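ok, trying the design again with the full structure, not the truncated one.
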């Protein structure tokens, strides 16, 4: 039996495989490739499955994942109508925390495609950085990162999180908002998040639950895998129970934490997204000319 190869050698093999695979784009950011690898606990074959499925789903719904522009006013509006940003720092378990909150309460202005597009532009931007960096604007170039720019992949995995925690504030969501959601978009969004996301979801916390939360759950549950639903916590009696899971140092001022307000964090993140405009719009990083359904589907849960 051959000796186990090093992480650096595995990453080199993955890069070569990626470049030569006709079912994948021309290029991939090195940090993103590392995220796929870490998500699959260093298993080469399972990493390959996840990578292929990620780009397959992207190219099946290009109106969300590929045809995008940070300068588009509708996308920008959706980003600020529904604040959806990573919070600074990491939990003691080395998890990254993302927060979602609807700001614009008018369901008539809701745009599921633009909201999803804005969210995945944010995550695609974030996945090019490590999870320790806080001063993103100091290091984010307004250009795409190519394999030639970083031919040697850093094999240090310690700066990447071990997973994500999502906090979803549904105080301003009504049944009209749920009714106005596009089922196609909701299905594409949830399929990608549950099957192809390059980070493992560790927990989901639903806060500020309205009285109609049970009806909202009934409508959305068909799109949520049982494994994900089982890791979902509903906080119906204030936020004290949330503090048991997420340190106050990470939480924004809006929720009794020590971090800045969600509005301030969102404003900074939009600048970071704009700084990555070229990368986000470069088809060499996202577009696949040949997309064949893999023999078996992959699930992170």
């Amino acid at each position: 039996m051959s000796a186990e190869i090093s992480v650096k050698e595995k990453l080199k093999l993955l890069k070569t495989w990626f470049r030569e695979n006709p079912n994948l784009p021309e290029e991939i950011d090195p940090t993103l490739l590392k995220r796929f690898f870490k998500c699959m606990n260093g298993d080469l074959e399972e990493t390959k499955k996840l990578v292929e499925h990620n780009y397959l789903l992207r190219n099946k719904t290009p109106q969300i994942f590929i045809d995008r522009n940070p300068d588009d006013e509708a996308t920008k509006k959706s980003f600020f109508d529904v604040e959806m940003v990573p919070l600074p720092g990491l939990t003691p378990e080395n998890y990254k925390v993302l927060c979602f909150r609807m700001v614009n309460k008018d369901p008539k202005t809701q745009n599921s495609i633009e909201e999803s597009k804005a969210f995945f532009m944010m995550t695609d931007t974030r996945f090019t950085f490590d999870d320790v960096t806080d001063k993103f604007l100091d290091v984010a170039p307004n250009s795409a990162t190519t394999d030639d720019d970083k031919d040697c992949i850093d094999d240090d995995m310690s700066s990447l999180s071990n997973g994500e925690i999502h906090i979803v504030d549904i105080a301003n969501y009504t049944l009209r908002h749920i009714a106005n959601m596009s089922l196609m978009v909701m299905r594409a969004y949830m399929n990608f998040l549950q099957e192809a996301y390059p980070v493992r979801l560790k927990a989901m916390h639903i806060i500020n639950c309205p009285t109609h939360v049970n009806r909202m759950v009934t409508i959305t549950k068909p799109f949520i895998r049982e494994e994900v639903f089982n890791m979902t916590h509903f906080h119906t009696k204030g936020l004290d129970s949330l503090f048991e899971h997420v340190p106050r140092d990470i939480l924004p001022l809006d929720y009794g934490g020590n971090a800045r307000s969600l509005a301030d964090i969102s404003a900074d993140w939009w600048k970071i997204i704009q700084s990555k405009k070229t990368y986000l719009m470069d088809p060499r990083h996202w577009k696949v000319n040949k997309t064949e359904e893999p023999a078996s589907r992959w699930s992170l849960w």
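Keeping the full-length input from now on. Strands lie at 82-86, 95-102, 163-169, 201-207, 232-234.
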